Amino acid sequence: MLTTVPEYLSVPLRSPRNVVVAVTAAAAVGGLAWYVFRRPRPTAEEMERARRELLATQGRITDGSITETPLQDEADPTPKLIQYNYRIAGVTYEATQDVTTLSELVQDIRTDLPIQIRYEPHNPANSIVVAEGWSGLRPGPHHHHPEPNPPTTQSS
User: Fold this and answer.
1) Mean pLDDT, consecutive 10-residue segments, the chain of 156 residues?
2) Of 13, 100, 130, 150, which one has the greatest count of Cβ atoms within 10 A?
């Protein structure tokens, strides 16, 4: 069998098993490179939503206060940004959260009351005041709360 293999090939390439291994390895590296460069990248909105979800589920809670809620449009009183500050371990942090995609959660908020902030313990500057499943904001007087279910009594 080795008589049909050209003599100018190096000794490792004369074995058909080594050739198969080399071709398989080259195909695997090529496939991995194709996947890394061609896979879909998350959009900025998807990354921000994932950050909010992570902080809403795993972040620590501290108290803070809203410093400003600038309105982008005078006709729409719903804020697009919420600027807030909070203190952790003697350090005061000031942050702004874009709440454009969370407009239904920030209607009629009270800016004169303390709020809750969720932050990352290893990076306290990474924080939020509202997310899809959590809110540290205080609702205003016009905010519609769902009616609580009346307590049920069991008769014996």
Assistant:
1) 61 72 90 88 92 94 90 75 93 93 84 91 94 87 51 53
2) 130
